[in-house]
Amino acid sequence: MVRVTLANGLGTGPSEAETFWTEFQRDLKAEEILGAKLFDRMSDGLTPTMAGEVAIEFARRMQELVDDAGRSLSGTDSEIAGTIRLSVPHNVVPFGLAEDLCAFNRLYPDVYLQVNASDEPVSFLSRQVDVVIRAANEPPDGLWGFRLMTITFDFYLSDACLDTWQQAMRSDPENVPLPYIVMNDTDTWRDRDQLLRHFPSARAVAETNGIDSVLAMIRYGLGAGRLSDYVAAEYDDLSIIVRCDESCDRTLWILTHPDLRRTRRIKLFTEFLHARFQDRDRRHS
Hints:
Layout: H1 2-7, H2 14-34, E1 39-42, E2 45-48, H3 50-74, E3 82-88, H4 93-107, E4 111-117, E5 131-135, E6 144-151, E7 153-158, H5 159-171, E8 179-183, H6 186-198, E9 203-208, H7 211-219, E10 225-228, H8 229-232, E11 238-243, E12 250-256, H9 264-284
Parallel strand pairs: 3-4, 3-5, 8-9
Antiparallel strand pairs: 1-2, 5-12, 6-12, 7-10, 7-11
C-alpha cells in the first residue's frame, strides 16, 4: 500500500511497473476485505481517500515495527560473516580508510563490506546502513559509537607554487596577490577568513566541490587551498602557509544504532576501526 502511494502512477520501467501492478492488485484485495475504498483512480495516478490515509498510516507503523524487529534480531547474531553497510564521507575512503578496510578484510574474509561514499543523511530506521562515519561536533542523539579523531585544517600551497609566488613577491610585492581555491561548502567559506587575515589581497581563482579536485589543483600549482592535515600528510610536496585555529576543527565519529552494536561483526568492525585510528593518531602526534 505504501509502495503504491509512493509510486502513484505507472510512469516507470517494466520491472517497476510490474511491482506496482502487484501491489495495486493487493490493495484492491485489501479494499474488498476492509469494505472501504482506499484510493481514487485518476488519469494521472492514485489519490488516497480518507480511509486510505488511515490505512497508509497503519501500514507505515507496521513497517517501522518490522524494521525494529529486524534490528533487534540482528543484534543477537554472533556470526562473523554477512554484510556490513557502511556510509562514509567522500574524502575519507581515499585517505586512510581504504587501508583499514583491507586490513579488516584480511582478518574477517567472510564479512562483505558495502561502502557508500556519500555526505547525504542516511536512515538506520529503514536499514539503509549499519555503520556511519561522520564529521560532527557531537554525534546525533540515539546513536552509539566512538570518536575516531579530531580533524584539523590548514591552508596549503604546493612547494613549486610557493617558490614561484615568493620570487614574484620579491620583485613586485604590491601586485602579486596569493591565488587560492575555494571548496564550495559552508565550512570553507567561513574558514577562508583565516587566510584573508594573513593575506588580505588573496584572490580566488577557482571553485570546486570535491576534496580530490582541490588537492589536485593545489599540487599542480593553481593556488592555495584548505585541506585537512591528515589528507595533506600523505604528500611531501605541500607546505602550510596559514594555520587554522581550533574553530575550524571537526570531530570524526564512527556510529551505529544501539540495537546493532550487539551484532558481533558490527561490534568487531567499529572497535577495529577505532583502534586503527587511535594508532594512526599516536604515530602522527
